[in-house]
From TrEMBL:
Region (Disordered): 215-237
Lineage: Eukaryota, Sar, Stramenopiles, Oomycota, Saprolegniomycetes
Protein name, as recorded: Uncharacterized protein
Amino acid sequence: MATTCSCEWKAKEWVHDSYCRWTHCRMCSWHHPLDLDTDAGFDEFTEHFAHCRGRQRHASVENWFKNNISFGASVQDIVSLFPERGPFNEKHCPTAYEVENYHCIYLWLPLSKLRELFPSLPYEWSNSEDSCCFYFEQGFGLRMISFEFHEDALPGELPALLAYFAWLFQLPLDDNLEGRRRIEDGSCIVSLGMSRKQESKHHYDNQMLTTLEFVDPRNPPQNGRNYTCPEASDLND
């Protein structure tokens, strides 16, 4: 077991010594002599991360809903965050025909345009295909924010971003690798899931699609996904 650690926690990130094998939390200054690759090291980190203040800040819904982003926001409210798009309103938005319980329109944006709006997204793991959709109930405003991440994972492997978000939001995954929780005040459902992309000449069968969604519980879209939560639960428990 290592007895010293020369790594330094500076400006809310670790400056690592190249030879250090200690386990470090990427969201706070916590570290531990056991290697994360060991069962004991993994258990120590799991116990810490459940109560990590840094994780709680990153997972807080208030950290994701900033600026003019809120359920009920209009298309114009969201578009105003991207002035380079020019004039844009509801009539320019395509219809999300998969939503069956109301007339749903959406605004699609590449993830690369959202760095300042969602700083807790792990952009170092993203690629040019990743995206975000804002879904609106026409006349009633924003109902859901959906992030899609394209990942490589062999059968039986857990995609890296799916695992990351499950840990970040402390979402237990079911047999279908899906999880969801309603935050304690009941104002938002956080939903996580995975699907395998269809094989084509451009995409192979080891490519997965990880989906992270923030859903308005007042009128969740009926789109084939399950947003039913057994009970309200604090993401920071």
